[in-house]
Design brief:
single chain, mainly alpha
């Protein structure tokens, strides 16, 4: 699926992918959501990870707007070290329950939607507006943190459910 190139399309794809994910996870009982797969990851972990990623996005935006260093993907980790970051995040969220994970994702999504609705298109889609975004626009980062992550989470969860791993 091609990336959105304007604010209206970004809002539409973010809402669409969130609705699909929310429908999918809405009927998953806690015992299934908390069950660990072979890689020590659960559906709850996947959902909580997506909420966390939106939080990272807002950290990047705040730092970039303030002229502070932007640590991508997160301070102390390189892109090649994302698996280690994910393990550390799962450990930090170990005691997070299923209802709290879903609520955290809903809250993060609501915050993202408010941001997309309030941020002018020029800020979202002017190349080079922020040095930290490199060749991507701010809108592309928002899509990666939101719609793209929702889509990948739904794909993984459906796969686990088909395979009986969840």
């Amino acid at each position: 699926m091609p990336a959105a190139t304007n604010r209206a399309d970004l809002i539409a794809v973010t809402e669409k992918e969130y609705a699909r994910l929310a429908t999918l996870i809405g009927g998953i009982p806690a015992d299934m959501a908390l069950r660990k797969a072979e890689d020590d990851t659960s559906i709850k972990d996947i959902v909580a990870h997506r909420a966390n990623w939106i939080g990272l996005f807002f950290g990047w935006v705040a730092a970039g707007r303030a002229g502070d260093p932007v640590h991508l993907p997160v301070e102390g980790y390189k892109w090649s070290e994302l698996p280690a970051y994910s393990r550390a995040l799962r450990a930090a969220q170990r005691d997070l329950g299923w209802d709290a994970a879903r609520a955290g994702l809903a809250d993060a999504h609501d915050r993202l939607m408010r941001f997309l609705e309030e941020t002018p298109e020029a800020e979202l889609y002017t190349p080079g507006r922020y040095a930290w975004t490199g060749k991507w626009t701010l809108g592309r980062y928002a899509e990666a943190a939101g719609a793209s992550h929702y889509r990948s989470a739904a794909r993984v969860i459906r796969g686990w459910m088909r395979a009986g791993a969840a």
